[in-house]
Amino acid sequence: MARRETATGPGSRALVVDLIRSSGPISRVELTEATGLTQPSISNIVRRLIDDGVVRETGATIATGGKPRTLLTINSRAVFAIGIQLGFENAVCIATDTTGGVFGRQLFDGAGSGEPQQVVERIAADYRGFLTGLGIDETRVAGLSIVTPGPIDLAQGLVIGPPSMRQWVDFPLRDALAELVSVPVLVDNDSAASALGEFWSRQISRESTYACIYMGSGIGAGIVTGGALYRGASSNPAEIGHISIDAAGVECFCGNRGCLERYAAPPAVVEAGRADPELNERLGLDSDTERSFDAIARAAIQGQPRALEMIESSARQMAMATLSFVNLFDVDRIDLAGWGFAIAGSIYAREIRAALEQRAFARRAHGVAVELSSNPRDTAAVGAAALILQSSLAPGHGPSMRR
Amino acid sequence: MARRETATGPGSRALVVDLIRSSGPISRVELTEATGLTQPSISNIVRRLIDDGVVRETGATIATGGKPRTLLTINSRAVFAIGIQLGFENAVCIATDTTGGVFGRQLFDGAGSGEPQQVVERIAADYRGFLTGLGIDETRVAGLSIVTPGPIDLAQGLVIGPPSMRQWVDFPLRDALAELVSVPVLVDNDSAASALGEFWSRQISRESTYACIYMGSGIGAGIVTGGALYRGASSNPAEIGHISIDAAGVECFCGNRGCLERYAAPPAVVEAGRADPELNERLGLDSDTERSFDAIARAAIQGQPRALEMIESSARQMAMATLSFVNLFDVDRIDLAGWGFAIAGSIYAREIRAALEQRAFARRAHGVAVELSSNPRDTAAVGAAALILQSSLAPGHGPSMRR
Q: What is the pLDDT of residues A217-251, one digit of tens each?
């Protein structure tokens, strides 16, 4: 989805917002100097940002000898963004203000709770209730972003896979939801959203080549380089869960064999746990993958040998694939996010760090920092809201919205 | 190496050159419109490009009712760029004009022909002889770029690996060569150079997410997205040869196990060939990897079963790793370049195409075109020269030059 940038294109709007956000109150003249754009371009962009409620004049001015300069700042509570991470068992819904700060959170039922059309209708109703509860009028919502595991069709707003979402294949998720709400809707990949959310909330440097590995029922990742998400040809990149770690391994829904997530993701770990009668009974494992994986992860952290062995095995396989991943993307920082890392993330981080320190191709050129998300269960939904902020700030970039 | 772009930064210079190159003769006013930059910015950039000999006025003007507009064009023969692909056995040296067209070619002795300082002295002498033979005065050379297999230290202009280059580790290649020639010198990765060279010479769209897989004694790749090389944190990305295809596999010099290139690259294929007494004798295999691999590849193309089996095995392993590679970079086009693909590239292309069509993660979202370089043995050297053109056109981007 790369496109040529021109000084008056949507990239300039994003750059201006980014400068206002990062520099604090700033004048139009300073923006002109910092961007190299013309004064009329800056005036136009700023006027539209004020009209859209994204930016406001602070009221303060600075005197510079000439005409006093009015200062601009981000209008944090004028507009809200809604992000929903649609999982199989439940959906996390987050409202953020314009700066990306979390303003409200609620759990909805997930994609597995009914036929797609029913689920979408319930989400729309839950969303309206959520706004009411927060006292947010829908006119102040910039948009609603719903993120799911890939592959996705970003342009059409469709979900293509994975198998847990089988009934959703080719269901027009974006358009069906847009029919039921009064705000623009977009659909994107949960791992990409997660990367953008972590990048924003942790204020990672734009100089960084940053990866966020996301483990939910599958394993994905997002890359941020030069301050922007790496999109690839179809916004389906960074599928670390579909690195093959065994050419003769088990078949994966994606068509390939030996994919990492068939061995290391929570469903595989829970399946192994349920096959162990003693562990199965002691931890009360069942068909709720998230709750069961949490139980195994908790037991591992408490040092129960069999559970620890299973989590460590998953972590070693993850570390193996992360080596290949790092040898391809040459990142300097990785954060681990998603509910799969919520309890035993430190075991994964330890295995990944050890592998990268000893075996990464470019380890003599630079190290790779590996850290845990501070909010692993919500990061995809927070990132989904960040996608709305980015889209409404810089229309034309990223996924297409349906109004 | 991502950095924030501003309208007056080096990115603008590259954009202006790119527009002049792709649009043919164009006026300053049209450049102002196409870029959104101010007239003074365009005038400054154009004046510097004319001073540097990159752009010239055509002499023609167009009348538009107002002041007649002078047209600008790329000055193809005013400046030359030199690219050297330094391999173990030999080095390919290419001179290109400002448009990237090949003006001259010569083979030098490679990195294995002596101590690093001796080799560099011989390269400097060969380079001077090469210029004399072509009738190019060194004052018209924009720079010399020398590319090698990674890992590299781009900022220092050092080679870190691979083991065939062991004596070169930490040898200050860029600075040693810069002492002996009168032009700026840069060092970069041969696969990255190759990708840039193919991208330029094939006029791949900037909308494409493009990969060039490079097979020489190792296997690497380069990615071009949005018209620019994907650099990662240290310009050591896209190391497809160091995707592990077998966690319990053989150790690789990089520190990892089961790396693709230990099974599929020419040295591994030649080693297997030499272990087969009948094949070894019939094809006259020896320690010259390139010549021996060519002999096996030629026999495979001619349908000799044992040779075909070996090349197909290499191609299948390559296809396996390419699946993981595509699942990470989400590319829409792959070209195969480097001497490893010069003879039996079609076998590799067939295996890779089949794997991607049946097993790529995002195959329902889009296909991936797989094509052969038209000039596989020279592509890294041509790309090295393209790096010089890019650096001299847009200083501050990419590897740092030593003058």
A: 999 999 999 888 999 999 999 999 999 999 999 99
All domains of chain B, ordered by start, with CATH? 10-74 (1.10.10.10), 80-194+380-393 (3.30.420.40), 203-376 (3.30.420.40)
Strand duo B90-96 + B80-86: pairing: antiparallel
Q: Which residue has the higher pLDDT, B5 or A9?
A: A9
Tokens found for residue A187: 């659909």
Considering only residues A168 and A323, tell me which one the structure prediction assigns the higher pLDDT. A323
Interface predicted TM-score (ipTM): 0.85
Q: Could you tell me where the DSSP H helices lie in B26-115?
A: 28-35, 39-51
How many CB atoms neighbour CB B59 within 10 A?
Answer: 8
Average pLDDT for A62-89: 85
B138 Cα to chain A: minimum distance (Å): 33
What's the CA gap between B308 and B347, in Å, rounded?
9
All residues of chain A having their beta carbon less than 8 Å from the beta carbon of residue B209 are 2, 231-233
The CA-atom distances, in angstroms, between B232 and each of A323, A379, B187, B238, B386 are 15, 24, 17, 9, 19
Distance from CA of B134 to the nearest CA of A (A): 37
What pLDDT is recorded for position A392?
Answer: 66
Interface of A with B in 3-32 (CB under 8 A): 3-9, 12, 15
To which residue do tokens 């004046």 refer? B47
Of A38, A152, A237, the CB nearest to B38: A38
Q: How far is the C-alpha of B346 from the C-alpha of B344, rounded, in Å?
A: 5
Q: Which two tokens stand for residue A140?
A: 């102040």
Q: In this predicted model, what pLDDT tens digit does every residue of A101-117 receive, in sequence order?
A: 899 999 999 998 899 99
